[in-house]
């Protein structure tokens, strides 16, 4: 269809007229101050619920994260404890197998060494007291207790 024919058909349609109160209503609404539509109460409620849900979810997520971190730290500490216990057991076994001797000193020709496995527990304790008191320092020779035919320790 061409444009002239469409224009002619449109002019042939009956004209719509506004109701008698239409113009008065439009003018009245123009004179009134503009109204702002109040947000729907349900919209405020939904927004509040969403904010609370997100906050609660974030809080739960953070607690879950901290709990996982704590569990990982506990697992690491337990593994370290097992390693230390195993090392302690191996050291105790090594000490049990070792031949305990104490070097009391030496001269140019003689080294003074005491085999602790041959001493009684009382003698062993008295011999070790000076070494423990000096906190790891080498023991000085105890010449007052040394006699050429044996030991009074």
Return the structural class.
mainly alpha
Average residue pLDDT: 79
Low-confidence residue ranges? 138-153
- Strand sequence of the main sheet, in spatial order? 1-2
What's the helix-strand series? HHHEEHEE
Anisotropy-based shape: rod-shaped
Q: What percentage of amino acids are in beta strands?
A: 5-15%
Give the strand tally: 4
Total count of helical runs of at least 4 residues: 4
What is the helical fraction, as a range of percent?
55-70%
Biggest sheet statistics: 2 strands, antiparallel
Cα-based radius of gyration, to the nearest Å: 51 Å
Q: What quaternary form is this? A: single chain
General description of the model:
The chain is mainly alpha-helical. It folds into 2 domains: 19-98; 100-146, no CATH class. The protein has 4 helices and 4 strands, in the order αααββαββ. A two-stranded antiparallel sheet has the order 1-2. Strands 3-4 form a two-stranded antiparallel ribbon. The protein is rod-shaped and about 140 Å long.
Describe the SSE topology:
Layout: H1 3-12, H2 22-31, H3 41-97, E1 101-106, E2 111-115, H4 121-133, E3 146-147, E4 150-151
Antiparallel strand pairs: 1-2, 3-4
For this entry, give a set of tags.
10% strand; 153 residues; two-stranded antiparallel sheet; single chain; disordered C terminus; mainly alpha; 4 helices
Summarize the structure.
The protein has 153 residues and is mostly helical. It has helices at 3-12, 22-31, 41-97, 121-133, and strands at residues 101-106, 111-115, 146-147, 150-151.
């Amino acid at each position: 269809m061409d444009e002239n024919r469409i224009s002619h058909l449109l002019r042939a349609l009956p004209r719509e007229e506004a109701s008698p109160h239409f113009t008065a209503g439009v003018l009245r609404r123009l004179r009134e101050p503009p109204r702002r539509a109040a947000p729907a109460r349900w919209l405020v409620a939904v927004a509040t619920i969403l904010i609370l849900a997100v906050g609660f979810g974030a809080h739960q997520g953070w607690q879950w994260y901290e709990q996982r971190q704590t569990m990982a730290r506990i697992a690491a500490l337990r593994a370290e404890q097992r390693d230390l216990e195993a090392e302690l057991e191996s050291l105790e076994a090594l000490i049990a197998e070792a031949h305990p001797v104490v070097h009391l000193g030496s001269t140019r020709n003689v080294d003074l060494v005491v085999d602790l496995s041959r001493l009684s527990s009382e003698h062993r304790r008295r011999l070790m007291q000076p070494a423990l008191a000096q906190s790891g320092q080498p023991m000085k020779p105890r010449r007052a207790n040394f006699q050429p035919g044996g030991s009074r320790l």
